């Protein structure tokens, strides 16, 4: 992965100049999950910023969706951004949605893929339990349509997490928090333009979850990627970028029309 900047309590990757797109990774997601996005958009007038979310570093009282959303707002303020586009996958999508609910004035647009926030079992059954490597490898492979995407490095990362007692407790705390912060009632009141990109073969947050987001969010568009699981930006980075860029161009046009006198 590209080098990250460390400043005070923040550690993040940044590239490009222009409208800021802040990317929120998932529970199991490293920053490298977004290499495709990070390499593409800085060439097209966007500043990509990927902070390392404090998923395992905050006190247990601050290990929940709402606290992470507040953390994101503090980060946006720290960076001096006026309004931003948030892109989130899985838990990152849920945090982005919750941030949008709490701080709509900070938002230009929202992009979610494989997001939790509606589905009762939150992250499906994807968060790991202690177990042998075979079990964990199968769990990691289930996240993708193509099991080969679950590289030995990814499996190892999940395995290490599942065998770290503190991390495991925090993971379960977050999973419970994701269920508690179900957003079905909030979504109809959220008018921020939202782009939903979903894998047709997502086993963790199945396609009907995407349909539900689309139905409940008043200003949303929904695009599908075939032969694609829970992490579209990793499995089909070019197609993901294409769909996201098309939507961003429309968003820019709409934004200019709104801001012109």
From TrEMBL:
It comes from the Bacteria. Residues 20-134, 183-237 form the AB hydrolase-1 domain. One of its GO terms (molecular function) is hydrolase activity. GO terms for cellular component: membrane. Keywords: Hydrolase. SUPFAM superfamilies: alpha/beta-Hydrolases. Pfam families: Abhydrolase_1. Gene3D superfamilies: alpha/beta hydrolase (3.40.50.1820). This is Alpha/beta hydrolase. It comes from Flavobacterium cerinum. The lineage of its organism: Bacteria, Pseudomonadati, Bacteroidota, Flavobacteriia, Flavobacteriales.
């Amino acid at each position: 992965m590209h080098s990250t900047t460390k400043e005070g309590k923040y550690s993040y990757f940044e590239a490009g100049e222009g409208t800021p797109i802040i990317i929120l990774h998932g529970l199991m997601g490293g920053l490298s999950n977004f290499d495709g996005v990070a390499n593409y958009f800085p060439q097209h007038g966007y500043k990509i910023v990927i902070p390392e979310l404090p998923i395992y570093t905050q006190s247990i009282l601050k290990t929940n969706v709402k606290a992470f959303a507040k953390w994101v707002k503090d980060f946006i303020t720290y960076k001096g951004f006026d309004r931003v586009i948030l892109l989130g996958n899985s838990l990152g999508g849920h945090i982005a949605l919750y941030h949008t609910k709490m701080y709509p004035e900070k938002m230009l647009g929202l992009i979610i893929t494989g997001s939790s926030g509606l589905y009762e079992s939150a992250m499906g059954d994807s968060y790991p339990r202690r177990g042998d490597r075979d079990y964990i490898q199968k769990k990691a492979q289930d996240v993708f349509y193509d099991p080969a995407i679950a590289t030995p490095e990814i499996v190892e990362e999940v395995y290490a997490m599942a065998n770290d007692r503190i991390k495991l407790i925090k993971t379960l705390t977050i999973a419970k928090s994701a269920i508690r912060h179900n957003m079905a009632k909030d979504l109809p009141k959220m008018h921020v333009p939202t782009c939903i990109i979903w894998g047709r073969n997502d086993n963790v947050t199945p396609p009907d979850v995407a349909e539900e987001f689309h139905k409940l969010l008043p200003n949303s568009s929904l695009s599908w990627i075939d032969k694609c699981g829970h992490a579209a930006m990793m499995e089909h980075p070019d197609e993901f970028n294409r769909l996201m860029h098309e939507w961003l161009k429309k968003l820019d046009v709409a934004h200019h029309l709104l801001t012109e006198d």
